[in-house]
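It is worth pausing here to work through a concrete case rather than discussing structure prediction in the abstract. The textbook approach is simple: state the sequence, then state the predicted structure, then interpret. We follow exactly that order.
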Amino acid sequence: MDTQHTSVRQPAQSRNSGKNHPQRRTCGGVVHDNSRHTTRFTVVGNHLAQHAELSLLAIGLAVHIQSLPGGAAVDIRSLAARFPEGKARIAAALRELEAHGYLRRSCERTSSGQIVTRTVSCNQPGRAGQGDATRREPATKPKRPVRRALPAVPLPAYPAPDLLRTALDVLAGLHREDPRLLLSATDAEHLAPGVVAWLERQMPPSAVRHALTSGLPPDRLHRPAALLAHRLTAQLPPLPPFRAADSPPPVIHPLQNCDACDRAFRAPEPGTCGGCPSDLNL
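Step two, the predicted structure:
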């Protein structure tokens, strides 16, 4: 009978600890079948993938945005064309990401006068740099309030790109009337159709600006975009009265001299008046 050597070390466990192989368990729960990625992958932190306050749509949207190359379009219209959730749900998810620091969006005017949206995606909100990704998360993190969805705004009767650009100009300039009305790009895109509904009612931009900025409460505005959405809906002017197209003016023919009696009469061409026979040989 062989003697057992108790001083021999046991074989060391693999560093992978089974993470790269299917795990066999006797109880319920997820089983990971992982393979190492070498190309076309994005590193996502668990602080995002397992976020306790973000919705599933917001988490998925953040992962999608982080996987895109620099300069890719991530506005509401482009995302709604890519995914089936629709503009309203995507806009709400973007506001969640803004509230938790994963997204920063602002309106900027270019040198040519065009308003563009600047979007910054943050894969680690609150970090000073990107090289400290291995640091542990703090034991307790201050909770940020999740933004509620903005009230609905009136919709224009017809798409009008020119009016939409004017509406965005109006919204981008509201902070010059009151600094509290500095809007994010997401809020401006939500409110713009309501402003277009005013403009198509033949309201000049100055009247819309006055309706949105006059009589504001003196205290702090907790949700300025929600207040503007309420005003756009509650103070929406009626449609202008329908007016049928004017009938064309009557045609006035030039004066002609009757070939029979030499009296003047109006007609498109020379000839005889109504009281003379048209056949002069009779």
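Step three, interpretation. Residues 161-216+223-234 form one domain. The CA atoms of residues 42 and 64 lie 9 Å apart.
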